[in-house]
Amino acid sequence: MKKGKLGVQMMMVKGKVEELGVYETMRKINELGYHAVEVSQIPMTEENVSELKRASKDFDIKIAALSAGLEPMASGAPGETLTNNFEKIVSDCKTLDCSFVRIGMLPVNVMGDKEKIMKFIEKAEKMANRLAEHGIELYYHNHHIEFAKYDGEYLLDIMKNSTSKLGFELDVHWIYRGGENPVEFIKKYENRISLLHLKDYRIGQMDLSGVDLKDRAKFGEIFTNVIEFAEVGEGSLDMKAIIEAGLESGAQYFLVEQDLQYGRDPFDCLKTSADNLRKLGYEDWF
């Protein structure tokens, strides 16, 4: 029976990496039962790459994907990019036995400008072909802004339909926040989605303590910003249907992510998600 691999998007534990180091953070991920990670927002220093490799071997954790910008997010922004650090990123992939690199989001200097976005996607497609020569696949991760429409068509669909080599790492929370049913949307991206982000969606509690209710602007801000990133199984998304649609559409890695944890320890959040995924019947996907 076909199955996928559950893992952790390490952006969630970047604070733990700063506190404990890569190796001990990976040890904890292993103790929670996860055996795949996507590396994001972790500095790819020589030491960190070496520790990722050591932990991967010692704890049997697959490095599913690395993260890199295509080009700087904004002028002078820090971080490695495929444009400026191609050989280094390819080398890291080879060192870590990783065959996926993912672009986390659009550069801020092209957001909201369709012409600039399409030039960016054209460059990404060329980069995807270049990486393919090294056995590496390039993926693009969506948020909600790609559900803006141009001439009646979602930007994300325009991006997909104008490329063939570039893959898409669909994030189910952001699809839902963009106004679409994640299950049905995933099906449209069959064979373009080896990587899928499992992130639930919930409406949080409004905290109006200390707010002057005559301050309509402040009230409005709180009222419209009660959406939260939930642990898998703690929100309103049909995670079982999402996972099955992902599997049928070609997803290999199902990566748990929660952008904000609202005061909870990220390891505790990851445990809640893991427990709920086991209850859904995915024990053998860990």
From TrEMBL:
All copies of domain Xylose isomerase-like TIM barrel, residue ranges: 27-258
GO molecular function annotation: isomerase activity
Highest taxon, organism lineage: Bacteria
SUPFAM superfamilies linked to this entry: Xylose isomerase-like
Family annotation (InterPro entries): IolE/XylAMocC-like, Xyl_isomerase-like_sf, Xyl_isomerase-like_TIM-brl
Keyword terms: Isomerase
Annotated protein name in UniProt: Sugar phosphate isomerase/epimerase
Organism: Metabacillus rhizolycopersici
